[in-house]
C-alpha cells in the first residue's frame, strides 16, 4: 500500500536520509543547518511545500515544490526535488508523487507544472517522457556570488 500526503513531524529523520540522497545524486553539498532550515520551511508550507510517499508506513519518497506567479498565466508549480529510496524504486512512487503535485496544482487553478532534471538522468527521463512533455528547453544558471 502506497500513501501520499504532506510531510509530518515524525518524518524528520527519514526525510533527511532521502533529502541527503537527492543532494548526493546531484553532487550538491549543503550544511546541516540548511537541512534543518529547509525541514521547518517545508513543514510550515507557506512558500515551499513537501509531500512524502509512505510504503507500509515508511517514508520512501519525497517531493518538494513551490507555486509561483507567471507573467503569461495564472501561475505555475515548480517541482524542485523528487527522490525515491532505491529500495522502493519500481513501485510507482515517483509517478504517484508527480500525480499528487499535479492534483494540488490543478486545485489551485494553475495551468502548469514543470521540473528540471539532468540531461543524462536516463532512468528518471524514461518516466518523465511518459507523464510529461519535453519541450526542448535548456536551463542556464548565472552565479550571483
From TrEMBL:
Entry keywords, A to Z: Acyltransferase, Transferase
Domain N-acetyltransferase: 2-145
Keyword Phosphoprotein among record annotations: no
UniProt xrefs under InterPro entries: Acyl_CoA_acyltransferase (IPR016181), Bact_Acetyltransf (IPR050832), GNAT_dom (IPR000182)
Protein's name according to its UniProt entry: N-acetyltransferase domain-containing protein
Domain of life, source organism: Bacteria
Gene3D superfamilies linked to this entry: 3.40.630.30
GO MF annotations in UniProt: acyltransferase activity, transferring groups other than amino-acyl groups
